Amino acid sequence: MRRHRKTKILATLGPASNNPQMMRALFEAGADIFRINMSHTDHAMLAQMVKGLRALSSSVQRPIGILADLQGPKIRLGTLPGGSRVLKEGEKIRLVLGDSSEKEDEIAIPHPEIFQAIKQKHALLIDDGKIRLRLLRKADNFAEAVVEVGGEIKNRKGVNMPDTLLPMSAMTPKDRSDLDAALHAGVDWIALSFVQRPEDVAELKKIVAGRAGVLAKIEKPKALTSLDRILELADALMVARGDLGVEMPLEAVPGLQKQIIRAARKAGKPVVVATQMLESMIQAPVPTRAEVSDVANAVYEGADAVMLSAESASGSHPIEAVQMMDRIASAVESENSYRAVMDAQRTPPEATTPDAIMAAVHEVTQTLHARAIICWTKTGTTALRAARERAEAPIIALTPSLETARRLSLVWGLHCLVAEEIDNLDQMVDRAVDFAQAEGFAAVGERVVVTGGVPLGVTGTTNMLRVAMVGTR
Questions:
Q1: Could you tell me if residue 360 is inside a domain?
Q2: Is cis: bond before 455, omega within 30 of 0?
Q3: Rounded distance, CA 192 to CA 156, Å?
Q4: Is the alpha carbon torsion for 440, 444, 449, 452 positive or negative?
């Protein structure tokens, strides 16, 4: 099954979609890769989902990627007298370390890290930013704050601290257990939540040890100050606009989205745009006009993938949500202005042989109106470089590794196929041409561009470009 759009769709599985019939329906509707949210998935269900997706992949004979999204550290309030209370603007409140407090003027927070790290004038946001406190002073196990934005708070509501670098790992004991289960199940990507610093990514990379790709979710303001280093360590990024929109001014998020996408594209790393993309379709069969524009903007910016969360996991219209995302991306990519934007945003190649080769592949493909670019890639590096150019021609990624093909299913424009190892350069070209014709990318008499590395089988040696004609042998 060939996709005619280049932007990938990442669909989250959940109660509305975690059975084999719905997985197939979502794939046929346009989903390219599936997300399993470990915040709501136990290990038995994880194994069942992975098994179902692997069976689907075998049935449709297409590599389908699986991303396990770790929950990350969740900071929450303790319990309140009566379960809730109303905070009034200008009121002074005492924050105390503990699971609960019976005093009316105290709020318990069972996280000592907060009291270690928070400083005077730092903000403390409760319930997705609906309530805002400003710190006045603090000690080791209590703090005093003033209410800047009031409202009702309830037991165990979430707490965000946009000004504070918390002295805690991005992985909790639950995350470590979930990570072990996900790696044992053989997922292709691990998403790390609430990344604050490059060391968070380095810690996960060390544990994963190449068994899966590592995707860093950018949802903390502190991560933006180290974005270049985080991007250097991570295999992919996600613009996680939910918490980012809580901890940053909402009006800043669109600009940050563009900044993160462009940084990832320049580095040749996949980037996903996520959160509330078609939020109204959780209940409604059609999205709002604003949501359609939001998805379209992510496609225009050149994001590798756009993501559905509750829309496909627990919504009433999961198939329709994927179909709508597919139609929006396809419509944008068919516009003349889309190609002009992609060309205008291309960055100069790095001063390396592989990058120079890929820049040449792009130019040759355009000049000759070649029907496809075929990349031979073992680890995925050649295919990533090809996708970085955002070429108009479709890109076929041929790899002997099924794991690599699954991982590359997240990447813009790549049609991934598993192919046997090749013995020589002529075989590389001949088999590339055969795949292009068999998969419907090129017909007899049409040109394709083939690229790879010589000597064969050596990673990181992309140094060859060949123009070939279909059906001339």
A1: yes
A2: yes
A3: 23
A4: positive
Q: Which of 217, 220, 385, 466 is catalytic?
A: 217
Are 196 and 299 in the same domain? yes
Is 134 considered catalytic here? no
275 as an active site residue: the answer is yes
**Angle 173-185/198-208 helices, nearest 10 degrees?**
40
Catalytic, out of 3, 5, 6, 35 = 35
First to last CA, the chain: 27
Q: Helix or strand or coil: residue 395?
A: strand
For 119-152, write each residue's pLDDT tens digit: 999 999 999 899 999 999 998 889 999 999 999 9
Domain count within the chain = 3
pLDDT for 473 = 56
**Beta carbons within 10 angstroms of residue 421's beta carbon:** 12
pLDDT in tens, 242-280: 889 999 999 999 999 999 999 999 999 999 999 999 999
CA 344 to chain centre: 24
- Tokens matching residue 198: 């490059």
Measured distance CA(444)–CA(469) in Å, rounded: 8
Say whether both 243 and 264 belong to one domain. Answer: yes
Q: Let me know whether 443 and 323 are in one domain.
A: no
Long-range contacts of 427-432 (CB under 8 A, 24+ apart): 428/376, 428/452, 428/456, 428/466, 429/466, 429/468, 430/473, 431/398, 432/374, 432/376, 432/396, 432/398, 432/468
Looking at the fold, whether 120 and 227 belong to one and the same domain comes out as no
Asked whether residue 361 is domain-assigned, the answer is yes
Q: What is the pLDDT of residues 399-423, one digit of tens each?
A: 999 999 999 999 999 999 999 988 8
Active site residue 339: no
Could you give the dihedral angle defined by the CA atoms of residues 143, 149, 152 and 158, in that order, rounded to the nearest 10 degrees? Answer: -60
Expressed as residue numbers, the domain containing 279 is: 8-72+171-337
Q: Is 386 within a domain?
A: yes
Cα–Cα nearest to 436, from 378, 374, 383, 346: 374
Domain shared by 313 and 255, yes or no:
yes
State the catalytic residue, choosing from 7, 164, 275, 382.
Answer: 275
Give catalytic status of residue 35 as yes or no: yes
